[in-house]
Write a structure and sequence with these properties.
The protein has about 700 residues and is of the alpha+beta class. The chain contains 26 helices and 27 strands.
Length: about 700
């Protein structure tokens, strides 16, 4: 687009009764008409080349630039805002800008066009006269007249104690007081401030800048009605006494109109949900957020099955009620931070914020929410006394890569939704085949895990622990004997068990089984000295009744508490340390001991480690495996052994696989071991025979 105006545009500029400005996105003024130049007190030839930021106060400029950005992002097609401009002589003038976007021949946004009107001129003149009326003794009738006739409320209060000296009729009318009720009292005593923070904001502005300008505050009228007001205040001397003069304008209707315009622009009139335009902006923000934080988001595209048929059969009134109730049900399935929008017709879109950084877990989280939504919509609807039924099809895409655009993300979810339709409806599909496969596998694993708990498909293996060559006990290690997959190691299913809450029945079974085995060993002379170490997850330990569960298991089985060792990991000490210590102390009173595994791999604080009632620490297998060839691993192992000795704790090394590792650890002062050098984890029968 050329910067040179055509003859037609020149004629428009000069004949327009309002100021007109043509500017670049950065605020560089390309041209204006005489009306605008006069408004800011410049010769017209000096305006061209000015930056918009040069003729606006900082706070007004920031507000305006932020609003202009909405035009470039497509959030709005035009906007109207009130800002102050700095005239050439340094004075301020209040204006109303109506700004629209100019596009080039290819439809791309290129420039801004603003219509500018001066506002409040008469009011400002009256305010000046009103101020003059209180800056000197009020003797002349014209000053009193300005004070009395100002359409803005004017309030005069002593600076020393805030006591009101005078108020004009407009103030009394706005606030529903009479003069006798306000004189001699403070605004706080009159309970004028609906929000105490507004009062502080005005006081801080007066203290820091000696004036408060155009602050939006909420005030309370005499009968309790709260309304929005624009307030300015400054210091002045009235009859020789320092005072604060406040100007108040009721802007309730303007705020209501602003909210109504915003609602019409960004919200669906039928359901009250964000519309396509606001969804687009929220989706753009989510893409930016994911790049910054690394967390994934998900977009769920929901389409009602058979809505057109229902709408045609039962009428649009019933169809509208169905859409409204569907919107409510979907909102009940998500968090406040998430966005539920109506795209149009019977299509709804949900943005799930701040999911896991791991795509597979984020997909599982999205699937959980999606399942809730499908289930909620599948319930009967009672609409105007008539029971109706419908289902929905859902497409899901997980996003958070830097390459994605809003169009691509929405299109992916849309494609997945049609896959769900094709699969028979009342279903959900993921866009990415790999994620879909991952979610399917996870669902299958959870289903099998629940069945395994019901059918007791688990067993404990025991890995021997030795001290100076003598067997002292074993660590109980969980194994899942899957009917078709065979033996499954804990790392494949324990994380899922923790996430789904299945860790609680599973953990109870492990503890009960280990205690029963302790009791059996105690019946034989050769086994009465053996102990069993049981791993307990952070989620299990945080159960309010965890201590009771452990003591009950010991009581039911008759196991010796002194032979039970609970292994904890460092990750459970990140929060609620006092609660953890309290539970450990209660169990210690019954003779139960504690071992800290994975020591040195987390972020333990020595401050609380010294307070933990531990009996043993474990050197992690990652250090043991590298101890002969990595000086750092060797140094860490030495430090752990030294720390254990200093704290009076026993130290055991796990993952010992070679005689060289054992000898090196022994040389460092560690004589308790666990690892393949001595034995793999064994089923109970083989352990007893070893």
């Amino acid at each position: 687009m050329s910067d040179k105006p055509t003859l037609e545009s020149r004629g428009f500029l000069e004949q327009a009764p309002v100021g007109i400005v043509h500017a670049t996105p950065e605020g560089h003024i390309l041209r204006c008409n005489v009306e605008f130049a006069e408004l800011i007190g410049y010769p017209r030839e000096e305006v061209r080349g000015l930056m918009f930021q040069e003729i606006t106060p900082d706070e007004d400029g920031k507000q305006a630039i932020g609003s202009f950005q909405k035009l470039w992002t497509g959030a709005t097609d035009a906007l109207s805002l009130e800002i102050r401009l700095i005239r050439k002589d340094g004075s301020l003038t209040r204006t109303r800008f109506t700004v629209s976007l100019l596009r080039d021949r290819e439809g791309w946004p290129s420039h801004l066009l603003a219509h500018v009107e001066g506002i409040g001129k008469a009011t400002e003149a009256q305010a000046v006269e009103a101020a003059a009326a209180v800056h000197e003794p009020i003797k002349e009738n014209r000053y009193r007249s300005a004070f009395e006739t100002s359409p803005d409320g004017v309030l005069i209060a002593r600076a020393e104690d805030g006591k009101i000296v005078d108020a004009n009729p407009s103030f009394l009318q706005i606030m529903n007081f009479n003069l006798e009720e306000v004189v001699g009292r403070t605004s706080v005593e009159l309970d004028m401030w609906a929000d105490g923070e507004d009062s502080k904001k005005v006081a801080e502005a007066l203290q820091e800048e000696e004036a408060a300008r155009d602050l939006e505050v909420r005030l309370r009228r005499k009968k309790g009605e709260i309304f929005w007001a624009e307030l300015s205040a400054s210091f002045a001397e009235v009859e020789g006494e320092p005072c604060v003069i406040s100007y108040i304008r009721d802007v309730s209707e303007a705020k209501a109109d602003e909210e109504k315009i915003r609602s019409l622009a960004f919200y669906d009139t039928l359901t009250g949900l964000p519309n396509r335009r606001l969804l687009w902006e929220r989706l753009r923000q989510a893409l930016v957020s994911s790049i910054r934080s690394g967390s994934k988001h998900a977009l769920l595209f929901v389409d009602l099955d058979g809505f057109k048929s229902l709408n045609d059969t039962l009428g649009h009134h019933i169809g509208d009620l169905l859409l409204q109730e569907t919107a409510r049900r979907i909102q009940n399935c998500v968090r406040e931070v998430d966005t539920v929008a109506r795209l149009g017709g019977d299509e709804f879109v949900i943005i799930l914020e701040d999911l896991s950084q791991i795509p597979e877990i984020a997909a599982a989280q999205a699937r959980t929410v999606g399942g809730k939504i499908l289930g909620a919509i599948d319930q009967p609807f009672l609409l105007d006394g008539r029971e109706c039924h419908t289902t929905s099809s859902m497409g899901i895409t997980v996003f958070g890569n830097q390459n994605e655009s809003t169009n691509e993300v929405l299109q992916q979810a849309d494609i997945a939704m049609y896959q769900a339709k094709a699969a028979g409806r009342n279903a959900m599909f993921f866009f990415a085949p790999a994620l879909q496969a991952s979610v399917d596998a996870r669902v299958a694993l959870e289903r099998d895990l629940r069945q395994a708990i019901r059918e007791n498909q688990f067993s404990l293996f025991y890995q021997p622990q030795l001290d100076r060559g003598l067997l002292t006990g074993a660590e109980a290690l969980l194994r899942w004997r899957h009917p078709s997959r065979g033996l499954i190691a804990p790392h494949e299913f324990v994380p899922l068990a923790e996430e789904t809450g299945l860790i609680f029945p599973l953990g109870s079974w492990v503890l009960e089984t280990a205690c029963m085995q302790l009791a059996h060993w105690a019946e034989r002379k050769e086994g009465e000295h053996l102990s069993i170490a049981v791993n307990v997850s952070a989620r299990e330990f945080r159960q309010p009744k965890f201590v009771d569960h452990v003591l009950a298991a010991l009581d039911r089985t008759g196991a010796n508490p002194k032979k039970l060792k609970i292994e904890l990991s460092e990750n459970m000490f990140g929060e609620n340390v006092e609660e953890v210590i309290a539970k450990m102390n209660k169990l210690k009173q019954h003779g139960i001991s504690f071992s800290l595994e994975d020591f040195g791999t987390g972020y333990s604080s020595m401050t609380y480690l010294k307070r933990l009632p531990l009996d043993q620490i474990k050197i992690d297998r990652t250090f043991v495996g590298e101890i002969l060839k990595d000086p750092i691993s060797s140094a860490v192992a030495q430090a752990i052994i030294s720390f254990g000795k200093a704290m009076g704790l026993s130290v055991i090394a796990e993952g010992v696989e070679t005689e060289e590792q054992r000898a090196f650890l022994a040389k460092l002062g560690c004589h308790s071991f666990q690892g393949f050098l001595f034995s793999h984890p064994l089923p109970l029968g083989e352990f007893n025979e070893a």
